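pasting for ref. prot 1 ->
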Amino acid sequence: MGGSMQTLAQIPFFKGAVDLDFAAFDRRCSWKRFEDGATIVDYEDESSDVYFIISGDVRVLIRTAAGKEVILADTKAGEFFGELAAIDGARRSANVTALTRAELCIMPATAFREILFSSKTVCDKVLRLLAGRIRETNMRLAEHSIFDLKHRLYSELLRLSHPRSGHPGERIVTPPPFHHVMAARIGCRREQITRELSAMTSEGLVEKNRGGLVLLKPQTLEARIAQAMREEG
């Protein structure tokens, strides 16, 4: 199904790419809408397209042989995914599902690679983005090796949160995270998340309201993480 946006020039990622001939690549891309819950890319698919999110949210996860799901990222409008298969040609390493209705620009791997090699601006953006993902992956790996469940939860909540408007010093995770989703993000069971959040509520560290999960004392969480890092270091 065609979408309203039919040129790469309107995609935020390509903003400032004055060294790119958009017209040459627009006709090689397609725009498609996906309904809430639709599978966009499945694990071990042999496709190699790159997907730029025009609107909506998608979830990237891996599923173990035993059926356990591990959420790698929730990706939103303005971001993209699928570049690894486009770069190395390997089968898809994750499943991507639409969390909401979403519109995507689908770019063939050949076009993506040509853009990388023809535009220094875009190439620099992609390299920086990949470097950022590697750094985050390294941090998560370190957390799984060093931290117990409680401190992994602290770190994930801080990562997901943003400053709470009108409440200096507080942060908020909005919408409030589902416990099974948090469990899939940090590698534990839903019941463990429920227990830890209850303990944090009793301590006055978090508070749930209609707007989200409020981190009342994010600086305390940061201090505990730093202390755990020192103890392990």
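and prot 2 ->
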Amino acid sequence: MDTKNKLLTSAERLFDQQGFNATSMDQLTEAAQMSSRTLYKHAGGKTGLVKQVLSARDKRFLQMIDVQSIDDLFEALKTWTRTEGARGCLFLRAYGETGSNTPEITDIVLSHKAAFHAQVARLVTGTIGPDHPNLGTLTAQILVLIEGSTAAAIYQGEDAITAAHQAASTLIAQASA
């Protein structure tokens, strides 16, 4: 693994486990087994490192949810929870910790959430059609179910995602009737 990937992997793990603010630069250099000079060379500072970690995670997540149906989306979310852990959305945690006072972080979080919303909208459109009068409402409802199940998975595990999937299926069946 090259230096940059080693840094991003170590930083993501620490940020995910401890939070962004609670993770010190010393902890990051120790976890990545590199000097602070090397860390700053590759990341430019903590904000730059958070930005790079979120960008890498965004790419992985969007690839994971590049699916063809709502059912597949919920299965992908279960897989994500199994492989990445169930500690809530790292993007929302970053946004919450920075209080939206760091524009670089805010931009990445909002961009990620917009891409996620677009994917859910695409899947809902494929399920009920582009002219359905409740398309926007149903998309918003499913998005809230997903976000809520991601948070509830912290203490309920995959069962939270399964419950959200069942609720989404009910909403889709009602919209399709």
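Residues 54-176 form one domain.
The mean pLDDT is 93.
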